Amino acid sequence: MSGEVLSQSEIDALLSAISTGEMDADELKKEDTERKVRVYDFKRALRFSKDQIRSLTRIHENFARGLTTYFSAQLRTYVQINVASADQIPYEEFIRSIPKMTILNVFEVPPLDGRILMEVNPNIAYAMLDRVLGGRGTSVNKVENLTEIETKIMSNMFERAFEHLQEAWASIAEIDPIFTDFEVNPQFLQMVSPNETVVVISLNTHIGETSGMINICIPHVVLEPIIPKLSVHYWMQTAKKERLPQEIEVLEQRIKKAELPIVAELGSTDISIQDFLTLDIGDVIELNQIIDAPLVVKVGDVPKFIGQPGKANKRLAVQILEKIEGGDEDGK
Predict the structure, then answer these.
(1) Which residues have a Cβ under 8 Å from the Cβ of 162 and sit 6 or more positions away?
(2) What's the pTM value of the predicted model, to 2 decimals?
(3) Taking a C-beta distance cutoff of 8 angstroms, is the pair 97, 186 a contact?
(4) Do both 177 and 289 map to the same domain?
(5) Are residues 149 and 288 in the same domain?
(6) What local confidence, expressed as pLDDT, does residue 316 receive?
(7) Pairwise CA distance, residues 296 & 298, whole Å
(8) Does 45 map to a domain?
(9) By residue range, what is the domain housing residue 30?
(10) Does 155 lie in the same domain as 32?
(11) What is the pLDDT of residues 100-117, one digit of tens each?
(12) Cross-strand bridge partners of residue 81
């Protein structure tokens, strides 16, 4: 029985069978020592580890937050989207699990091979459509009779929504999602072979008072080149990217060309509001600095130098006398 968890009723039945003599405890021990043969279903091959599934879950939690922000702005109503589950199943099983008529959006994600499918429950899709067209978000499932205008509005809306996947996947791959197909009947859509393993991320979606699921179906062929990046070791790496000498040189040249404001203060003073209001042409304001005292030269409002005023080529100028040591952003 190793590797299996028995319920309380199964345990009670087992103890009862041993006490009544229906089962022999020695035979049970003998069976336990023998090698167990486990049936393996090749149609349900597990090609992703739990660690990799958890990484995909974290990535699509970011995607769900991006969708929440996007749809909230587009629909101008309460929207909440979060990851409900992430599972790996055969493609055939996924197709059987979704409605016979639903909203299917197919995307390519170059440079990765294969296509990704976003299935939107009709209740959710029609609630979105109703809000976009100025309604209250009422869901009326008539997916079999979509008009060309409704199809175009839906496909445009979901095409822009899927762009948020690019940002969510940025840590593992630089993808460029491209909308390629819009379908309502899953039977007409054969992305991969029926037994191909796919990862299905289910997003629990609430739009106003309507709720439903959005499913992201990712075939193994899409994720295969980036599977190593889904491990914990990749996420734990902290190696810093070193800048190339050419990049450093370009950065230095740009910094040298940056302009800074330099101000030489002749002095300052404080006056009352009453005096300020009575100022007139010809009035003189007395500064708190002696005429022959050195000036403070500020760079970006920070005192940096001591200088004296003068002229150079018949223009006003300031000669730097010394540097103010310890000058910081607070002017100390």
Answers:
(1) 105, 107, 118, 177, 179
(2) 0.57
(3) no
(4) no
(5) no
(6) 84
(7) 6
(8) no
(9) 8-38
(10) no
(11) 888 899 999 898 888 999
(12) 205
